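Worked example

This section walks through a single chain of length 321. The input is the sequence exactly as stored; nothing has been trimmed or padded.
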Amino acid sequence: MTDLMTVKSLSEWPQLRAEIERTVRGVLGAMPKERPELQAKTVDEMEFEGYIRKRVNYFVDDWERVSAWVFVPAGKEEAPALLCCHQMVGQGKDEPAGLDGNPLLAFAQHYAQLGYVTFAPDCITAGDRVSVDSAPYDTKSFYKDNPRSSAMGKMLWDHVRAVDALCESKRVDAARVGVIGHGLGGHNALLLAALDERIQVCVASCGFTRFADDKTPERWALHSGFVYMPRLKKAIKEGAFPFDWEHVLALAAPTPTLVIAALNDDRFSNAGSCEKAVNMARAVYELLGARDALGILCHQHGHDMDLASREVADEWFERWL
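Given that input, the structure is written out below as C-alpha cells.
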C-alpha cells in the first residue's frame, strides 16, 4: 500500500495517482464499458413551496431502470446540483427525500430549499430495488448475476449514471455538481468524488474507518448479506490492504471534500482513524495547492448527522459550489 506521506513532488503524483486508481478499480471489479441512453421519464410530479419534487426513472445499463427523486427549486435560472446518497436503510431514496426516516438526513429536500437541484436515487437492494424474494441489502442475487463485480462498484456506476441524469437537466449548471452522503452514502460520496471528475465538491458523513484500523474489517467482505467488496477477503485475512480510505481521499484531490466523523460512532468507532486518513491525504492536497479544500469535522452525536454538522455542510457547499 502506497504511503502518501512519501510523495514529495508534484511531478510524482500523476503516475502514482494512476496506480492508485487502477488498484481501487481492481478491487471494485468489472463495470459496464458503455453508457446507454438514459431515456429518463418523469412518472410523478408535485409542487411544494419553494420547489418541485419529481419521481423519475432512467436506464443505468442496457436493461435496468432505476428510480430517483428529483427536487427542482423555484425559478428558471441554472442552479448548482447535489447528488444525495442514502444510508443503509430499507427505504433508500425516501430518506433523503424527506418522506421517511431521519429529517436531518433529508438532504435532497433540504438543499432544494436552499436553491440546489437535488437527485436522490436508490442503491441496489434498497427502496424500489429490493427483490421480491430478498431482504433489503441482500446482495446474493446481484453476485449470482455479476460474479466479477462488487456491490461498491455497482453503486459507483449507478451514481455515475445519476450524475449523467443530473447533467442532462435543463436547470442544472453542469459545472457545479456536488455530492453528499451519510453512512453507506458517505462511502459512495467519497468514491464518486474520487473517480468522477465532474464532482466539484463532496461531503461525507460517518462514512468510514480505515481498513487498517477497523476492529471488524471483515464487514467489507462478508460471506452473506451485504457484501461490499469480495476482492478484499484475502487482504482482510492477511491484514495487508491494497488501498485505504486516505487513498480514496487523495484520488479526489483537489476536489473540496469535507469528512464528518462522530467520536462515538457505534459503527465506525475510531474517529481518530478518519483524522489519520485526512492528514495523510492532505499531503496530496498540499502538493496540488489545495490544503484548505480538505476538511474534517468531529462531533459526539453517534452515527448520525446533527444540526450543527449539517450547517457546516451547508457552508461548505456555499463556499465551494
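What to look for: The two ends are 33 Å apart (CA to CA).
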